[in-house]
Amino acid sequence: MPFGAFLNRRSLLGIDNFVNAIMFVLQNPATRGEIFLVADRAPVALAEIVASFRNGLGRQPGLFSVPPRPMEAIARLVGGAALWERIGGELVVDPAKLMAAGWSPVTDTKAALIKSIQASP
Predict the structure, then answer these.
(1) Cβ(91)–Cβ(39) under 8 Å?
(2) Which of 22, 23, 89, 98 is the most buried (most CB within 10 A)?
(3) What's the rounded Cα separation, in Å, for the pair 6 and 41?
(4) What global pTM score does this model have?
(5) Are 26 and 108 in contact (CB under 8 A)?
(6) pLDDT of residue 58 exceeding 70
(7) DSSP code of 67?
């Protein structure tokens, strides 16, 4: 898979961390009326996501590095600018406000990715 050089980061949110964050907010009066962004502790690169999924399938990462710029140019040439933005862009949020209130993710992002792919049919 040609994603080895894709270091663009994604904020992910595992279901266990999502449920835990909701419970935390509901049980803490200090969070009442506040707005929070929630995500797993640290964003992960697209290459790490692909490698984790493959790991969950019992496979080697199988990644090789193709520079993103030529792939972006090709995608845009064939009318895939929107698709490129979803694949090649960064999607990062900062859960610092929620974490400063005392919340902490209960599940590791990469472990949750592996678990999710193993649970799929």
Answers:
(1) no
(2) 98
(3) 20
(4) 0.76
(5) no
(6) yes
(7) -
